[in-house]
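Hi U.,

Before I forget, here's the chain from the pilot set. I'm dumping it here mostly so it's searchable later in email.
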Amino acid sequence: MICLKLIININDKSFIGKNMTKNEVKKPVETNPNEKILGSLKANENAKKILFLATNISNNLMKLVPKMAKSVNEIITEIDTKQKGKIKGQIDLAFLRSHLYNLASYDRKTGKNSAFEMAVTRSVKLGILMNTESNQFSANETEVLIMDKIATPFVDVVKKGQKGGVSKIANTSEKLVPVHTGIIDKVWSTKFAVQTRSSKTKDTKINFQQLSSQFLNELESVYKLANKKDYNRLLELVDEKTIENLGNISALLEDRLIRSEFINATDNLSVSGDVKKSA
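Structure:
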């Protein structure tokens, strides 16, 4: 049997007939240069098992954060030791979160799961911190472990028998202590705080008036979600830092100082618009 080998040069116009045009010659599909490397990671297997559980349970997703964070740490370590310099782009929070979404076949455009996204985000944050500062951040099968003085920078000291005998002192303990997952967000925001432009006095006045109205509207919306027990939307809008801020706001408003001094200021306005000095 004779086999004939036919080699066609697609650039040769003589081979483009009535049923084939230049536009019909398919070009190679461009792929993400990172896909092959990320897909070959051995650490993916452990991550996939945990992500499978995360996408198939509806309650208490945060209990998977310690295991997921450990798998993120394994992924970072494998990339650093075997694929260093081959990955295009920065291996950061957004990069690793996207990789976990891909491993879980999660598409937030077709069906957003706020609880799942929060669990993944906290896991990636902790995984990065574990990889860069292993003496301060760790995790076992069920607990998130953070250095005591990092998790709680100040501790209350109560002096019995004294009025106002509560003071704060710096926490110096360096042992790793179990914490709830919300502390991850708090520590992350502290370590990677974004500096904002300071406003001038006039801008501050205008902004605060506007923000007070906007805040009231948003607060009412979140209150309604909590009242309706719409947990998915609530978790999307509120985290541990938000709860801490609301507590501080409540404490500032309880003594009604701003209101009372505003009344004093308006009562002591002079004809020129200046505030008279109180006796």
